[in-house]
Description:
The complex is a heterodimer of chains A (381) and B (392).
Chain A: H1 7-23, H2 26-35, H3 41-49, H4 68-80, H5 87-98, H6 103-115, E1 120-122, E2 139-143, E3 146-156, E4 164-170, E5 181-187, E6 193-199, E7 205-217, E8 221-222, H7 228-264, E9 266-267, E10 270-271, H8 276-300, H9 307-336, H10 346-359, H11 364-376
Helix pairs in contact in A: 1-4, 4-7, 5-6, 5-7, 7-8, 7-9, 7-10, 8-9, 9-10, 9-11
Chain B: H1 7-23, H2 26-33, H3 40-52, H4 71-83, H5 91-104, H6 107-119, E1 124-127, E2 143-147, E3 150-157, E4 168-174, E5 185-191, E6 197-202, E7 211-222, E8 226-227, H7 233-253, H8 255-268, E9 270-271, E10 274-275, H9 280-308, H10 316-339, E11 347-348, H11 360-368, H12 378-389
Helix pairs in contact in B: 1-4, 5-6, 5-7, 7-9, 7-10, 8-9, 8-10, 9-10, 10-11, 10-12
Amino acid sequence: MDFDLSDEQKLLRDSAARFGEDHYAFSAWRARAAEGRGFDRANWGRMAGLGWLALNVPEADGGLGGSPIDTMVLMEAFGRVLMLEPYVSTCVIAPLLLRHAVAGPRRALMDAIAAGAAVVSLADAEPGSRFDLQHIATRAAPTDGGFVLSGDKSHALDGGVADWFIVPARTAAGVADAGGISLFLVPADAAGLSIHASRAMDHRINARLRLDGVRVGAEALIGDAGDGAPRLRQAVDHAIVARLAEALGAMDAVCEMTLQHLRTRQQFGQPLGAFQALQHRAVDMAIACEEARSMTYLATLSLDKPEAERGRIVAAAKARVSQTSLYVGRQAVQLHGGVGFSEELAVGHYLKRLTMIDMAFGNADHQRARFAALSQAPAAA
Amino acid sequence: MNLDLDPTDRAFRDQMRTFFAEHTPPEFKARIRTGMRLEPAEYTAWQKLLHSRGWGAPSWPKEHGGAGFTPTQHYIFESEASRADAPMQYHQGLELIGPIVFTFGSEAQKAKYLPAIVAGDDWWCQGYSEPGAGSDLAAVSTRAVRDGDRYVISGQKAWTSYAHVANRMFLLARTDPQARKQAGISLFLIDMDTPGITIRPVITMDEVHHTNEVFLDDVRVPLTALLGEEGKGWGYGKVLLDRERGVTAAFTLRLAQQLRGARQAAAQALTPGGTMLDDPRVADRLAQFELEAMALETMVMRTMAEAASGQDSGPRASMIKIRWSELLQQVTEFWTELLGYDAAPFGAVGNQPLAGEGPWPAKGMLYARVTSIYGGANEIQRNIIARRALGL
Ligand SMILES: Cc1cc2nc3c(=O)[nH]c(=O)nc-3n(C[C@H](O)[C@H](O)[C@H](O)COP(=O)(O)OP(=O)(O)OC[C@H]3O[C@@H](n4cnc5c(N)ncnc54)[C@H](O)[C@@H]3O)c2cc1C
């Protein structure tokens, strides 16, 4: 057992922390969020310059071939500063899936990702699918030299700022079957694709998609036809764990702000921190952070386990980190009093981000049910 | 003890049911149901409508322009409004300052202020909290100094809801800096167009402009702006505590709306196997919320009955405030959860209209966070119960 970071990972942690301090002051964040453009191209370029966008691009494709621990280290630092950049969709999910794409488009897109020249979004939900990744009604019909895609996607994380979409669609089998799912690479400007962007409460710009006879070439198919489901599950599990690290960073940051407030804000002639009711609350928040950290480590170190075991642990971690992080976010607002409810302070924005992380890829309730199902029949999963 | 309505009350209930069914604007409902507030102009229109029926002030005695309802009728009025997804009346004039004016105000103040509150012609804001005086309200440092035939008021108020809409403000200011904390405080009724008042908007987590900072810079008001006697302002506020029973009661009866909204959302939220309501875990959680709301509603009925007969309800109003706010938070959180990704669209981008059914459940969930902070934070309510009721 070893929960320590390597020297290289410590360096990565320190430079990510410095990046946050230099480029993510809350005042700058607020101004950027108010522009409503999703993220800051200049920061994205800086992240490319630091090599972070290539972290999960395989070495064979010119990337760094980093590990889930590296991703965790970065995401925790990003979480502390409420990162707006589309890192998880573009730099965690996309490289994992694109590894199975044919060489030409694979290398071109991997290069673009590494350079900060392409944002990629996964359209993983459909109307009525809730959080079930394999409930897919979107169809991909073969035509000469390619496929025609039709269907509706109800949510694509960072979809409103994406240049490319990874679209799961059926090449065979019925709407709820695990087989018959294929993954396609679709450019945002494809004819027949309409993108309905909207801003979430955490200032990310997501999208709903309608594919109305979108034509793609044969090279748009990622991997073999029909074998998309396990890859999708794996990529989403990686994305979940990255977002747990993000949650962890956000939880720690908002706890520190709250402690600072308890020490400095005076009422009844004393600092708030002198009131025992609030001391106990702060202690429960600290315990919540410890639980979340433990679960995030466990999940990060389990990502290379066989699928059933990986899924069970990731589900448990997502459920517990969601629960503890929402507790922390809500109590941080409460202990700040009125100012915690103001848009002018960072605290409330942390609660909003944590709420959106809970929703992402299945909320705590969904993940608890998934955990229960996988615990009962680990072999069958 | 008896839960049944007599024939007169039943007729009253039918009358109210018809009224609210016919007159509640449909465009209010999506917001009302999630616990969000309406736009000020919408509140004013609603107040004027009720006033035209003689129900502008359901909780006031007839002599001051109130509807003169019995407590049972008042309960029916509020619960029928809730049932129809009708708005609550905006409470700061009606429930917070109006009753203080009719209890302690001069005849001139009563004549000037009460009818305009009931008619929806005046909008009052509450200038109590300050940057340094939140939970510790007695620490207010805004000063009112007598200068000939004027008081000169200077200081800063925080969180003054709807100051940007209001034409009048009731505020606490210190007239005697020497006196013991509570004893030096007086209550003033001032006009918002008096020179020296500056308002800075404060946007809150739900991305709405409800509230403001208000700066008072040598604001000169006539001596008649003082309500009652100098140094007694804190004591007048105690009337507020009684009146707040009514406000929390009305809020609590609204929980039925949020519960209905959540249940409806569950029935409409599609899943691979049907709808969320088909999931026994969802039905179970809704049932839990509903039975907790039932307990609370019965606490409210008892409190309203006691208020009518002049009995002391002890700490029950504080208890209701705590439980109502917690339950409101939990129900709106659950509602948002039920929507899954459909709760993601929060703000429109570019020229496209906002996707989906509107951001109201998510906004209601965020707005609900403040209900455990304002009106005496829940920690403070617990302190009050422990000290005054449990003797700890
Ligand atoms: C949206 C909004 C609208 C408002 N509208 C109005 C208005 O119209 N007019 C008006 O006058 N005011 C208004 N308020 C102010 C509101 O009443 C105060 O926010 C509230 O009284 C809490 O004060 P505070 O914000 O200074 O928090 P603080 O008093 O600083 O409290 C911070 C935290 O510490 C806790 N705490 C404080 N003292 C103790 C203690 N002794 N023991 C245990 N815990 C303690 C509190 O419970 C809270 O959790 C509004 C506030 C908001 C956010």
